[in-house]
TrEMBL record:
<dbReference type="InterPro" id="IPR036918">
    <property type="entry name" value="Pyrv_Knase_C_sf"/>
</dbReference>
<comment type="pathway">
    <text>Carbohydrate degradation; glycolysis; pyruvate from D-glyceraldehyde 3-phosphate: step 5/5.</text>
</comment>
<dbReference type="Pfam" id="PF02887">
    <property type="entry name" value="PK_C"/>
</dbReference>
<dbReference type="InterPro" id="IPR011037">
    <property type="entry name" value="Pyrv_Knase-like_insert_dom_sf"/>
</dbReference>
<dbReference type="Pfam" id="PF00224">
    <property type="entry name" value="PK"/>
</dbReference>
<dbReference type="GO" id="GO:0030955">
    <property type="term" value="F:potassium ion binding"/>
</dbReference>
<dbReference type="GO" id="GO:0004743">
    <property type="term" value="F:pyruvate kinase activity"/>
</dbReference>
<dbReference type="InterPro" id="IPR015795">
    <property type="entry name" value="Pyrv_Knase_C"/>
</dbReference>
<dbReference type="GO" id="GO:0016301">
    <property type="term" value="F:kinase activity"/>
</dbReference>
<keyword id="KW-0460">Magnesium</keyword>
<dbReference type="GO" id="GO:0005524">
    <property type="term" value="F:ATP binding"/>
</dbReference>
<dbReference type="InterPro" id="IPR015793">
    <property type="entry name" value="Pyrv_Knase_brl"/>
</dbReference>
<keyword id="KW-0324">Glycolysis</keyword>
<dbReference type="GO" id="GO:0000287">
    <property type="term" value="F:magnesium ion binding"/>
</dbReference>
<dbReference type="InterPro" id="IPR001697">
    <property type="entry name" value="Pyr_Knase"/>
</dbReference>
<dbReference type="InterPro" id="IPR015813">
    <property type="entry name" value="Pyrv/PenolPyrv_kinase-like_dom"/>
</dbReference>
<keyword id="KW-0418">Kinase</keyword>
Amino acid sequence: MPSGQLLLEEPIRMASILEPSKPSFFSAMTKIVGTLGPKSRSVEVISGCLKAGMSVARFDFSWCDPDYHQETLENLKTAIKSTTKLCAIMLDTVGAEMQVVNKSETTITLQEDGEVVLTPDQGHEATSEILPINFDGLAQSVKKGDTIFIGQYLFTGSETTSVWLEVSEVKGNDVVCIIKNSATLHGSLFTLHASQVHIDLPTLTEKDKEVISTWGVKNKIDFLSLSYTRHAEDVRQAREFLSKLGDLSQTQIFAKIENVEGLTHFDEILQEADGIILSRGNLGIDLPPEKVFLFQKSALNKCNMAGKPAVLTRVVDSMTDNLRPTRAEATDVANAVLDGSDAILLGAETLRGLYPVETIYTVGRICSEAEKVFNQDLYFKKTVKFVGEPMTHLESIASSAVRAAIKVKASIIICFTSSGRAARLIAKYRPTMPVLSVVIPRLKTNQLKWSFSGAFEARQSLIVRGLFPMLADPRHPAGSTSATSETILKVALDHGKALGIIKSHDRVVVCQKLGDASVVKIIELED
């Protein structure tokens, strides 16, 4: 496939463009991660977010304290019960983030062509002439001519609330900068980003470790978003830390790629991580604007071929304050789907945006429309070619299940799984129909008590494109008889009928393990 060719189904009927979207039990195959915060933490609003299509709730610990986030999470649990919508939990670390500290929260006005000093001495009050920062080593990391960006959220992209600085000289531990644009800064903390400069801060800070080992353990987080991942070793160290925290040994690590350093080591990071978050906000500062799209397409393709979820950020910034996205943003969301994104991550749009529910709903509708013209045939052939021969046993079963489902125009693929791996492999081939992942609980023991696994595996599929989980009855654990499997299949079919995605005379493809054999079978439903 030529590098510039889009994965579009040809031809697109013009009449189909004007057809209204049909309601469905899910807004789209592409998943939506919503960041919960001041404008989206009540039970009512969170319930609206879940109904609109949010399947993963992100808790950003770069601001506010654990008690605040715990209150929000309790509201999320209440909303999940009332809506009966599943939702996974993602903890986003602070990482190697530099910040300007404005203790008095006074408004700071910076004038173009003026000078401002960045100092590690936090005894100073933040003013238009001097800005205290939380990092002692900036003076040792930058040189004359380097670019520094400061913004309240690093989300807005608005040049009136964020400022570009150019380093003019280093004086001891202080950095003197020329102001490149006029801006007004509000609030107590502003993010500081030094473009293409190595910052000697740990990826997993002591504060991060404390939050994970307390808040994270208490709430059994499904995903850890590892901010400022720069090397594969960052992921290995985080995994080693999680392995000592009981249930969190099952938590999946999503490496957040935010700068050129992470981009340079992308292949090794992808190999170690469970998934990737492409943080386009920071990357848009670190990279020249004309290079961002190229990185996006290349990174998403690598994630797709590896069968690991890829999450894209910064798509509808304008919906923070507006009810509709711009034309460019709507196209950007669609292109993210066509490029292969598993999920769209909404940050400021739901955290502090005026329309969190409407934003999720709108993004879901755009994703759904893009999925209709996604060229699955071309993608399938490309993926099979990449995997090569001989395929592994599981890869062969997964690709065969998708091929069979497309050939017989099945309405759904049902996959029995205990680890979730088989279902994720099926989803890797991007079938045009949803995949119902029936997670079969496993009985496990720590020599003190017996328990069932499966809840983690079910929730972790909520970030994978096209994958929808169902946790089987723990009275029928993995390894049960074929009669038990038939019972679970009937429950899964009834579940699909109740959701409206399976109807009489539909064909359903089932992928399951019977004894030592893996089987793909086609069922035609009766009345």
